[in-house]
Amino acid sequence: MQTKQIAIFASGNGSNALNIIDFFSENDQINVALLLSNNPNAPIIAKAKARGIDTLILTNEAVANSNLLIAACVNHAIDFVVLAGYLRKIPVEFIHFYANKIINIHPSLLPKFGGRGMYGDFVHKAVIEQKESKTGITIHFVNEEFDKGEVIAQFELKVDQLDDLDTLRKKISELEMKHFPTIIEEVILNTK
Ligand code: GRF
Question: What is the C-alpha separation between 95 and 101, in angstroms, rounded?
């Protein structure tokens, strides 16, 4: 199999992006070829550069432009796009161009706690406030509707009565670190 090239889109801290980069660093079949960010201050940019990954920082205006995004990815021969804490909407033509090749992670059991404005701590706070007994992560394909693409995998965890924002954030992060790279690998290796 020809090596598949991944682009990771990330806006912030990038713990998932970094985990994915490290997971595939010795992999012959899958290579992280590009880290794209809309946030020039995202800590992940320097970390990706330090690992020899090409980085591209685009303005919010530029990432709303499908042609620009497609050109950036085609230039890097990208086969799959992974959204890892990427907070901008993906333009529709880009979604069509990479149909079923864009994978997102969301820190709840979708369709619960999804949709616009539901990200990061907003999700965990809502889970605690609504006294959910369980939560988890959803890995899904991206379609035109926010957090509504086909679910690839979900992983659950128990919410304890004593859980607060910090403990829940940590538990979710651990689940993401454990499963996101392996699910990405499965999807890529199983796509013809
Ligand atoms: C993660 O919780 C992920 O599920 C969500 O955004 C967060 C990103 O965190 N989409 P990080 O930037 O990977 O640390």
Answer: 8
Task: Report DSSP state, residue 28.
Answer: S
Nearest to 102 by CA among 135, 75, 136, 66: 66
Spatial distance between the Cα atoms of 88 and 148, rounded to a whole number of angstroms: 15
Helix 120-129 to helix 165-190 angle (10° resolution) is 120
Q: Which two tokens stand for residue 124?
A: 């965990």
CA atoms of 143 and 93, how far apart (whole Å):
11
106 counts as catalytic: yes
Angle between helices 15-23 and 43-50 (to 10 degrees): 10
Per-position pLDDT tens, the chain of length 192: 899 999 999 998 899 999 999 999 999 999 999 999 999 999 999 999 999 999 999 999 999 999 999 999 999 999 999 999 999 999 999 999 999 999 999 999 999 999 888 999 999 999 999 999 999 999 999 999 888 999 999 999 999 999 999 999 999 999 999 999 999 999 999 998
For residues 8 and 45, what is the distance between their CA atoms, to the nearest angstrom? 11
Whose CA is closest to atom 14 on ligand 1? 15
Residues in the chain, total: 192
Closest ligand 1 atom to residue 17 Cα is: 13
